[in-house]
């Protein structure tokens, strides 16, 4: 896959993530809790991925079990907690606010990359971190002239989703040094399913599984907003560094905001919209290459 196709792959995956609020909201309407939505998401994705991999390349199912720590990282530490925090934030605030807070992730990636990969704090990165802080403050109402308030629990959950979302890029970067994108994605969801299913309490809502609409939404969240999204995003990480992938993935909050407005009529206030724009701007800013670095690349 070329570098350009890798960027398109990441963008497509991010767009599919952006519509996840559609399926989550409908599952809430049928009585699902955030933990149960996470459980059906990761387990349906694990099943679909295992079937896909079995018929398209059994070699991708082979791993050294001594490498399980990679998938504990991507699957349990990142995916389970990222989803749980995101779905709680959607329930407590709104789709648009939750996804905006999710996009504090690039700020966390910048900090992690400094200590794990030795990437320097440039002027752009420091400015982007400051803009992210200001943007999030506007979104959640931490300004004296705002006329709205949000659930503190929802806000903390939203920030938590950004933290754990950032960890996926970090853990996946390490895992991709030994395994293909398909292998990483499959075992991410297998490990996530093993971790959460015993605690999800799906038996408490077994009657809802007789409803076709429930299965339609489970299929949507499992196939489109999970299986295809993660395959596309992780495939793109093979050629695009994790920090740069963050800028391309800003398609996700845009898609989520449009969805929340046109489908659920959730409206951001003017201050929240300004905060949303600042957060997206910060993601773009943190990925800008210094001019001197760009000049060196052209000269080489």
TrEMBL record:
Positions of transmembrane segments: 7-28, 34-57, 69-89, 95-117, 126-145, 151-172, 184-202, 214-233, 245-264, 270-287
The record, for SUPFAM superfamilies, names: Multidrug resistance efflux transporter EmrE
Q: Does the keyword DNA-binding apply?
A: no
Q: Does the keyword Coiled coil apply?
A: no
Q: How does it sit in the membrane?
A: Multi-pass membrane protein
Localization, UniProt: Cell membrane
Print the keywords alphabetically: Cell membrane, Membrane, Transmembrane, Transmembrane helix
For this protein, the record's InterPro entries field holds:
AA-Vitamin_Transporters (IPR050638), EamA_dom (IPR000620), EmrE-like (IPR037185)
User: Residue limits of the EamA domain?
Assistant: 7-140, 153-286
Family named by the database record: Belongs to the EamA transporter family.
What is the protein name stated in its UniProt record?
EamA family transporter
Q: Which organism was this protein described from? A: Salimicrobium humidisoli
């Amino acid at each position: 896959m070329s570098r350009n196709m890798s960027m398109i792959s990441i963008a497509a995956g991010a767009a599919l993530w952006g519509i996840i609020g559609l399926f989550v909201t409908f599952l809430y309407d049928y009585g699902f809790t955030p933990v149960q939505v996470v459980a059906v998401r990761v387990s349906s994705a694990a099943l679909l991925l295992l079937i896909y991999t079995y018929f398209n390349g059994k070699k991708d199912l082979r791993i050294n079990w001594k490498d399980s720590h990679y998938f504990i990282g991507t699957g349990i530490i990142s995916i389970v907690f990222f989803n749980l925090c995101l779905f709680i934030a959607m329930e407590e605030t709104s789709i648009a606010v939750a996804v905006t807070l999710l996009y504090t992730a690039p700020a966390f990636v910048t900090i992690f990359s400094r200590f794990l990969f030795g990437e320097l704090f440039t002027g752009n990165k420091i400015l982007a971190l400051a803009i992210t802080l200001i943007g999030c403050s506007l979104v959640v109402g931490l300004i004296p002239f705002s006329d709205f308030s949000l659930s503190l629990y929802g806000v903390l959950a939203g920030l938590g989703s950004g933290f754990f979302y950032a960890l996926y890029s970090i853990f996946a970067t390490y895992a991709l040094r030994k395994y293909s994108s398909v292998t990483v994605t499959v075992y991410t969801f297998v490990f996530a399913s093993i971790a959460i299913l015993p605690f999800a309490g799906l038996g408490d809502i077994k009657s809802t599984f007789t409803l076709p609409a429930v299965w339609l939404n489970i299929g949507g969240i499992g196939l489109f907003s999970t299986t295809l999204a993660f395959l596309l995003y992780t495939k793109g990480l093979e050629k695009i560094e994790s920090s740069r992938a963050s800028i391309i993935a800003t398609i996700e909050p845009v898609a989520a905001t449009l969805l929340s407005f046109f489908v659920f009529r959730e409206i951001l206030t003017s201050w929240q919209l300004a905060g949303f724009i600042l957060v997206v701007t910060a993601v773009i800013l943190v990925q800008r290459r210094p001019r001197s670095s760009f000049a060196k690349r052209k000269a080489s």
